[in-house]
Predict the 3D structure of the following.
Amino acid sequence: MALVSWLDALKQTWRGLQRRRLLQFLSLFTVCLMVVTACASKPGSQTKAPSGAEAGRISLGTTLTARTLDPADAYETFPGILLYNLGDRLYTYSPGTTQLVPQLATALPQVSRDGLTYTINLRQGVKLHDGTAFNAEVMAFSLRRFMENGGRPAFLLAEKIKSVKATGTNQLTIVLKTPFAAFPALLSFSGVTPVSPASYAIGTGKFKPNTFVGTGPYKLASFSSDAIKLDPNPDYWGKAAANQGIDIQIFTSPANLYNSFKAGRLDIAYQTLDPDQIASLERDSQKGGWQAIEAGTNVINYMSLNRTSKPLDDVRVRQAIAAMVDRPLLNQRVFKGQAEPLYSLIPPSFDVARPGFKQAYGDGNFDKARTLLKQAGFSESQPLTVEIWYPSASTTRSVVANTLKESIEKGLPGLVTVSVQNTEGATLWNNVGKGIYPIVLSNWYPDYNDPDTFIQPFLSCETGDGATGCKKGASQANGSFYYNPQANTLVTQQQGQQDPAARARLLSQLQDLAVKDVPYIPLWQNKDYVFAKTGLKQVKIEPTQQFLFWQIARS
């Protein structure tokens, strides 16, 4: 599965290429209205009017970028959020929960005994933005286009689906290549949304990055590299948007986003602000006239340890490094308490997650690390030297790497030397699968809300052996080159297991293997923050990390 850390690196590059468009001047009437409002407002409250041309519109600022809105090619964070608001899926999550519910489907799928055939009945009376009636043929067309056009996320369905066809006007039948218990969750991926056959075509590379014609609560009004506008869909089949539209401004730096929000030129500021800026906005929220809304995240940050690189081919060395890591220290010094220590590849938001790395290695357990290194033949006269690599554009990972270096060298003086290295992001992620780097600081954005997306991409391998590691497969692409036949078997078994209790046991065994073999070291999860003017309602990040614009309203 593709590394989304690579996308993070590209995002940093794209930011530097984009130019910020100047905000339109407010009309004289609006200025006068601001003065009147200021006179009546409480001391210290924000007195700026909404930056949207209409009071009912919501202005949102972000540093996230949108390369494309074509659902068959969009595989980054912000396009996913936009597609979630512009389109619908067969299944989605009940707001505020991780409960999977039907959206364009009328019920959860009927699954054959062998776990291969999914029959899905579809909602009637739905129209696409261009007036096309939604039915099974439209959905089948959209799924085939997602798989066949060769976009970045195409593999998500193409590797799983054998065939998809309309078996009735409002009935869809999907046959899988192998059983996959998480398939309904996969169908909630942002890009698995119907599009109009009148506006889109099937064919390799036939993408439409600047438009979107789907079924969702908003229509795309305009799209450019620095501004995006969404208008309510007056013919939406579901609950109408609670606002008159969303005006999105894309900033080139966190400083610009921070300053614009503090100056009252934005209703909402969402990703990505620096820790100091987040702390400032939290601290000043009451007197500043805004809300500080904290949410969890399902993004994981971790170390990838290359087992083909000496001395990391010795499991005792990998275990020692796991014992050296001090997660609470990272949270305190780097993130100012705005993160959560992570002790499993599966985030604790899933009830199957087990904090195995905490139980086995603790945090900053230098006595355990020293013992393991001595067993591996290292000493003060023959010290261990390790390299930690990160993408040069990531200030956060730079601070993390150097904090780890300082902590480890202080805890194991003379026994361990840490060398911190960086290179341009695209170069780094292009070379991770080639085995060039011993240790890489990476992150992972899940493709769908299921534990499988935190296990299969890390522990599975198509081709390899115990002596030389993974030659081809997910763990090779992820830079660990981990190969374990038992892990491969367990990954396949949990993917096909429909019984939740039995599947949980398999996932537990996989987490135990990750703790014992240490191909990766889970480090932290950032908390997610959104800041909104006082008076806005229903501004919140979903447990699935989606941001539902249509819920936002002015009180």
Observations:
- The CA atoms of residues 148 and 204 lie 6 Å apart.
- The radius of gyration is 25 Å.
